From TrEMBL:
<dbReference type="GO" id="GO:0016787">
    <property type="term" value="F:hydrolase activity"/>
</dbReference>
<feature type="domain" description="Isochorismatase-like">
    <location>
        <begin position="8"/>
        <end position="186"/>
    </location>
</feature>
<dbReference type="InterPro" id="IPR036380">
    <property type="entry name" value="Isochorismatase-like_sf"/>
</dbReference>
<dbReference type="InterPro" id="IPR050272">
    <property type="entry name" value="Isochorismatase-like_hydrls"/>
</dbReference>
<keyword id="KW-0378">Hydrolase</keyword>
<dbReference type="Pfam" id="PF00857">
    <property type="entry name" value="Isochorismatase"/>
</dbReference>
<dbReference type="InterPro" id="IPR000868">
    <property type="entry name" value="Isochorismatase-like_dom"/>
</dbReference>
<protein>
    <submittedName>
        <fullName>Cysteine hydrolase</fullName>
    </submittedName>
</protein>
Amino acid sequence: MDYDADSTALVVVDMQNGFCHPDGSLYAPGSEAAIDPVGDLVDRVHDADMPVVYTRDVHPPEQFDDAHYYDEFDRWGEHVVEDSWEAEIVDDLPVGEDDHVVVKHTYDAFYQTELEGWLNAHGIDDLLICGTLANVCVFHTAGSAGVRDFKPVVIEDALGYIEEDDREYAVDHCEFLFGEVTTSEELSVG
């Protein structure tokens, strides 16, 4: 699959210490295993002068204090709290000077963020999506991209997960509902 660097961006979802590092509160070995494949994609995309967007899941400590239903701390425990080491992108994925970082407060990187406006301002139509967790933030971000008329393309061998079945579920549903799925090997950027 060929993607034009002028109208495509790589979206790296939540490759943060809290999820990818063994000392993280929501560490999953599958997320740590995604670091190298994601890093390889970032390198290829940088070489092609294609934009890279990193998302960071960040929660202010009081975010869910008045929640009626939606409370990620209740669901997952306290994680990636604002200004914490957990909320930082892993050291193995250095953010480039021209890369864009989106701070989000929920699973969906488009919800109450500037992501859609930034992509539109840069003429982006297609999104190559990788990162973690496959069936949570990657899935919700890809679906949200699709309903906003961006073409989401999930890179299945560059996804973090808790259980292999979670990754398979997310990949199958992404392909079925709103986008395409490919592998790093099948991907051509330039």
